[in-house]
């Protein structure tokens, strides 16, 4: 039926999936709310000491259908005015305005951060094609070059980072819970401490909890290992991947250019993965504004570097600027969480061993490609060579203890 009906079918499929997800969320919310109300009624018979001020606040928040993780990040219990709760019920009486203001304080930076990349891509769509046409390219060639980046190459780069994105989404509320429970627990005990003990307690609050450090470092290591493997496969087998997936959609010139572009952007997989994990950590410890600020600065650098390098390198200048954008934002986030002591000192040793694993696996992949490409088709060369690289990478990872089976089990939560 043509491309138009294909797009329509995709839109219908996405709409049905979103509607189904919304129904599941609504049903789940009603079930959770019903259970929480029953639990709250049962707790009314308990004493205020058993309930606790923070517990009553969370129960009330859940009854108001607020996400507990978001509330825990932004709401500091010690800063609530005494008029906001009653001692009889030990329940926080938050107004709708107060709830919305606290949620907006957390959600607004995240929303702005999510809009930065689409806005930069929109600006590129206006500037890049016009610039390439100004250098003498026909409009068809200029559009084709820019389309190769935004189409096949971007799809291949962004597809594997969905794994680390899911990891980051699962990590953020866990970090928020541990961070907030430590912070609230420390402040509740300050009234019973002497002046000297109170000062030492304040200094201890600046250090992250052991659970936060452990969870962050495990997810950080997994993101590095997984993204390094994917980046290595994209770098080594870029030609085979493009030939298998887009042989009938690209002409020979576009195919050659797509292979080069994919190899350049393969490193971006690592930076995007680290950016997602570090952003989730910073949001979990109540700093949602900083990742957005770093993304904004990186977007400005991308525009300056990209449009400057296009004078000499053409479309490849945009790729270099994309690497600068993601690397700057990711490294700024990592520097911040390292400064706060959330990443442990074993990081340097971990990177040395990871580089060794990548080097050995890369040598095996290059040898397989050199030997198999003249003998096998692109499909079999990709399958055999990719399997060999994955096997060597997995064995080397376990041998060097870069990442173990026990670490993976702890991340997925299997008991």
Please outline the helices and strands:
Blueprint: H1 3-43, H2 48-51, H3 53-63, H4 68-74, E1 85-86, E2 91-92, H5 96-134, H6 139-158, H7 161-188, H8 195-205, H9 210-236, H10 238-246, H11 252-265, H12 268-284, H13 289-313, H14 315-339, H15 347-372, H16 378-399, H17 405-412
Antiparallel strand pairs: 1-2
Helix pairs in contact: 1-3, 4-5, 4-7, 5-6, 5-13, 6-11, 7-9, 7-12, 9-12, 9-15, 9-17, 10-11, 10-16, 12-14, 13-14, 15-16
Mean pLDDT: 75
- The total count of strands amounts to 2
The major β-sheet equals: 2 strands, antiparallel
Low-pLDDT parts are 47-92, 184-207
Give a structural overview.
The chain has 17 helices and 2 strands. Mean pLDDT is 75; it is low at 47-92 and 184-207. It starts with a helix and ends with a helix. Helix 1 packs across helix 3 and helix 7 packs antiparallel against helix 9 (210-236). The protein has helices at residues 3-43, 48-51, 53-63, 68-74, 96-134, 139-158, 161-188, 195-205, 210-236, 238-246, 252-265, 268-284, 289-313, 315-339, 347-372, 378-399, 405-412, and strands at 85-86, 91-92. Helix content is 80%, strand content 1%.
Short overview:
The chain is mainly α.
Main features:
mainly alpha; 2 strands; 1% strand
């Amino acid at each position: 039926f043509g491309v138009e009906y294909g797009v329509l079918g995709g839109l219908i499929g996405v709409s049905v999936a979103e509607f189904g997800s919304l129904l599941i969320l609504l049903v789940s919310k009603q079930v959770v709310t019903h259970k929480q109300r029953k639990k709250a009624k049962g707790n009314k018979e308990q004493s205020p000491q058993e309930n606790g001020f923070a517990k009553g606040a969370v129960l009330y928040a859940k009854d108001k259908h607020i996400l507990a993780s978001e509330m825990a990040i932004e709401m500091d219990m010690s800063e609530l005015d005494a008029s906001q709760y009653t001692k009889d019920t030990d329940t926080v009486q938050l107004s709708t305005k107060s709830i919305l203001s606290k949620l907006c304080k957390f959600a607004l930076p995240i929303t702005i951060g999510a809009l930065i990349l689409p806005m930069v891509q929109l600006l590129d769509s206006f500037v890049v094609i016009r610039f390439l046409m100004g250098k003498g390219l026909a409009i068809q060639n200029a559009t084709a070059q820019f389309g190769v980046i935004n189409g096949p190459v971007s799809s291949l780069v962004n597809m594997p980072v969905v794994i680390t994105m899911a990891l980051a989404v699962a990590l953020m509320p866990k970090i928020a819970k541990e961070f907030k429970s430590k912070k609230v627990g420390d402040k509740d005990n300050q009234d019973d401490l002497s002046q000297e003990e109170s000062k030492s307690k304040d200094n201890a609050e600046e250090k992250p909890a052991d659970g936060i450090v452990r969870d962050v470092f495990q997810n950080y290591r997994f993101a590095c290992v997984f993204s390094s493997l994917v980046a290595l496969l994209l770098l080594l087998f870029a030609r085979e991947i493009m030939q298998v997936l887009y042989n009938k959609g690209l002409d020979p010139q576009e195919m050659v250019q797509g292979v080069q572009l994919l190899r350049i952007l393969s490193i971006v997989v690592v930076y995007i993965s680290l950016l997602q994990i570090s952003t989730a950590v910073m949001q979990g410890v109540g700093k949602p504004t900083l990742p957005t600020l770093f993304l904004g600065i990186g977007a400005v650098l991308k525009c300056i570097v990209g449009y400057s390098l296009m004078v000499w390198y053409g479309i490849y200048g945009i790729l270099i600027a994309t690497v600068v954008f993601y690397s700057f934002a990711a490294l700024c986030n990592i520097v911040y969480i390292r400064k706060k002591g959330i990443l442990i000192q074993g990081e340097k040793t971990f990177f040395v061993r990871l580089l060794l694993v990548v080097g050995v696996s890369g040598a095996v992949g290059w040898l397989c490609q050199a030997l198999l490409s003249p003998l096998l088709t692109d499909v079999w060369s990709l399958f055999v060579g990719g399997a060999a690289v994955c096997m060597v990478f997995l064995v080397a990872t376990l041998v060097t203890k870069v990442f173990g089976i026990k670490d993976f089990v702890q991340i997925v939560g299997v008991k």
